[in-house]
């Protein structure tokens, strides 16, 4: 099946179909089950600009609404990451007089509150009202709106040019990259930078972490595809940095064409991608075959353990878990419930497969025999926190990059 590339308008060829999927963050009450929204989750590859993207777009208002339940501050690791990011900006791009920082998708303000406490002018765009209110409670200036060309023009008129426009785990969510870049063009200072970090296709392919593919993640970036997109809109990729968070990301730094000299890291990552043949259709077809293998191995293991009478729970009612539970048909017959620390998810049912979500205290009351670690990108933090689970004889089930018991 072919569709049209959202970046360059050429053909996109589908290489992976993850089937009928629900909204990944739509946690339900019992009386909402008959109104659940589903769509087809499939991924394609543009042979022209190399951008990997979903072939079906979910309306943004269905995903990013007032009751959006994800909070960036929920992880100790991520709080530290954003604190360091803010400090890095304060030492560099925001060290100049009257600097102005804008964040696209500021969530609960975990990054911008450090910027604000340093006395630097700032503004966060956050369309999800509840998390935007949390950001405001931390003293962060927030506009409850989507970032696009029209809103960027309004902010430029009111606040002047931005020294930094930053986004974390947000730009990959936005199918209308053309309007994003036009907005950046309107708002960014001549010597400013547009910096964003998102899951990296190279890590997804290498780790077979296909649960990184869900409704909110529309694009799956590489240095090559970001470079091509930036050039198309009059910008230039001037730096890249590999990040360990969320299972492997890249931070891309983009400037106006000719404004800055690209770092050696850009050419190095481009060469790495070329050697791995990351933009080749054969590589992506092999990835799809590996995805099917993970599904078969995980379902086989869960069925075997259940047949032996073992109790299995899930840990982390993540957006990613919607992909794997629905693609693998993992319902309450295989995983009895999922523990999660987010109050807004507790007492509800997971999207699609309707696993009950319980608070973390339920995990030890009593401990299950096995726990599927859906929040595998926080494995080190979670396993350390839940050390008594292992001491009580419990075992973790992991599925990235292979299915195994730990």
From TrEMBL:
Keywords: Methyltransferase, Transferase. Residues 244-401 form the C-methyltransferase domain. SUPFAM superfamilies: S-adenosyl-L-methionine-dependent methyltransferases (SSF53335). GO terms for biological process: methylation. Its EC number is 2.1.1.-. Pfam families: Methyltransf_13, Methyltransf_14, Methyltransf_23. Residues 5-64 form the Methyltransferase putative zinc binding domain. InterPro entries: Methyltransf_Zn-bd_dom_put, Methyltransf_Zn-bd_dom_put_sf, MeTrfase_14, SAM-dependent_MTases_sf. This is Class I SAM-dependent methyltransferase.
